[in-house]
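Worked example

This section walks through a single chain of length 521. The input is the sequence exactly as stored; nothing has been trimmed or padded.
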Amino acid sequence: MSDDSPENVLFVVLDTVRKDRLGPYGYDGGTTPGLDAFAEEATVFENAVAPAPWTLPVHASLFTGMYPYRHGADQENPYLEGATTLAETLSAEGYRTACYSSNAWITPYTHLTDGFDDQDNFFEVMPGDLLSGPLAKAWKTMNDNEALRTVADKLVSLGNVAHEYLASGEGADSKTPAVIDRTRSFIDDSEAAGDDWFAFINLMDAHLPYHPPQEYVDEHAPGVDSTKVCQNSKEYNAGARDIDDEEWAAIRGLYDAEIAHIDDQLTRLFDWLKETDRWDDTAVVVCADHGELHGEHDLYGHEFCLYDQLINVPLVIKHPDLEADRRADTVELLDTYHTVLDTLDVEGGAPAATGEEAVALDRTRSLLSADYREFAGVDEADRDPGQRASPGGEFGFVEYSRPVVELKQLEEKASSAGIELPEDSRFYSRMRASRATDAKYVRIDRIPDEAFRLDEDPEENSDLADGEDDRVAEAEARLGKFEAAAGGAWTDADDAEVTDDSLAEMDEEATERLRDLGYVE
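Given that input, the structure is written out below as tokens.
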């Protein structure tokens, strides 16, 4: 951190936004004039690696500085526990903190919002009395009982399921202006009180389903009726629904319209910060938690794979210690945790509660440091698995546990179409990957591994896992080192069955609550 480091941080996650639909990454669809201008005074990172391909584990990594295997927040354990969050650390240091989003995973229920002085999830599905009453008790009971965890997995996904069926022009997408307004009020209140601040916002527009405001449809998807195109990725992935080229074009147009809506609202916040003379004293991080597939590799959405459309995400940072330039070196999203600590001159590492883990500032993981990703200089005992596996910092690492919530929905779509999904498929697989700028290796526990030379085959069409390419071999070796340091490779496939048999073990009240919510009959 330099003497002129900003006193405040605005951290923005563009949920489900793939980088090749943004102007700073070469897209000419006119979706992001605001981000284009922002990129002119910021650093654009071309090879940012997300630690997972979906929201919960990625945000847990952003908030803890830990890889998913360590923080444990995933679909088979769908809440963060035993880890001190970035917000808890900053709040303890006197910073005022806030988190605003309309993503159903970023709530007190999953503990991702622990430590924020103010938080709001603008897409509330479950009434507050349920969150604090019998359902909350049932939630904890289910997660503490391994036999009941499948039900808990489904319960925590309720918000996203409801988002799928209920979102419209007046639904989740319309919450983005409210997120921006609430952020402005938080900043005003913080500065009126003389407090420095950290504001985290997640903007959900680009997450399925796509129902953008009509003005953006008219510009980016003229003539498209969002209710007439396939908005359910599970139908397509299960083989229950075909999508032709014309429909894919319509879907991508709606996606562009959603991104344009985000861009307009984010620009409104940026312009306000400039007009109120706060811009220069605010570090700004803009990234996506993961991307999205629109038919590439015969997949739709962001499940069941670790292709680059999902895990090579946009990352753009404005900070006086970073040049307004482009960088092609490997960075990892979990490094932003250390970058925020470094910006605000907070060392971290102090647990917020007895028995918790807290990650201290490591300047080899701060983007502001001259020693960034020089992991060989870190004491061996202090290195995390990524540092052990890649001392030179050229590889990033990704983890994907078995997606039990998506599996249940996928199986239902397949069954309704008379399709039986093979258990030895990517749908039931756990995956880990190592990724450098030129090569990637993906370990998969139920189907053959995948590997690609990204410099020669950026679309990942030619699988080289069985070949003799030196860089692919290096990527596999680095992944093996990461796996060893993270507790071992996932070599034995989990039981493929995803059932509701555990409902029989639940008490009557908890079962009745799930029945009210539509999860059981």
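What to look for: The radius of gyration is 22 Å.
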